[in-house]
Write a structure and sequence with these properties.
- About 30% of the residues lie in helices and about 25% in strands.
- The protein has a single domain, classed as Alpha/beta knot, CATH 3.40.1280.
- The chain is an alpha/beta fold.
Length: about 140
């Protein structure tokens, strides 16, 4: 598939989730990961040392992210009340996937900026890194 994609978390709370998402992003073909806001202390939780292969971009806040989204990238939010991902047929060629923090939702400012909001149907709320991994796997499986 042509293009590239990145995935990140707005106001992440747990550094372990960033490390887990970083590992999944590297394993499933992401070009970069990012954080929006800074609520965590840096800590390595990634056994594949993904930081050697794909960068972590840190945005100060939602506006900084909006101002610096890579050219022609489509923002896609991952939220509870979005379009179920299993009905989402084609991921954008160039995309940035935005996950909310572990204890809240994506900010209204970012939700309004997203072209699409997707959800993962599940019985209970998913861990943010697990949700991100599912989105990345969905992208990979639908690109074949």
């Amino acid at each position: 598939m042509r293009g590239y994609f990145g995935i990140g978390i707005e106001n992440p709370k747990k550094e372990m989730n960033i490390g887990t998402l970083w590992r999944s992003a590297y394993s499933l073909g992401a070009a970069f990961i990012f954080t929006i806001g800074h609520r965590y202390e840096r800590q390595a939780s990634d056994t594949t040392k993904s930081w050697r292969h794909i960068p972590l971009i840190e945005y100060a806040d939602a506006q900084d992210f909006i101002d610096h989204i890579p050219y022609a990238c489509i923002p896609v939010g991952i939220e509870v009340n979005g379009t179920p991902i299993n009905y989402f047929e084609k991921h954008p060629e160039r995309a940035v996937y935005i996950l909310g923090p572990e204890d809240d939702s994506i900010s209204k400012k970012l939700q309004e900026h997203c072209v699409e909001i997707l959800s993962i149907e599940s019985k209970y709320c998913l861990n943010v890194a697990v949700a991100g991994s599912i989105v990345l796997y969905d992208r990979m499986s639908k690109s074949k």
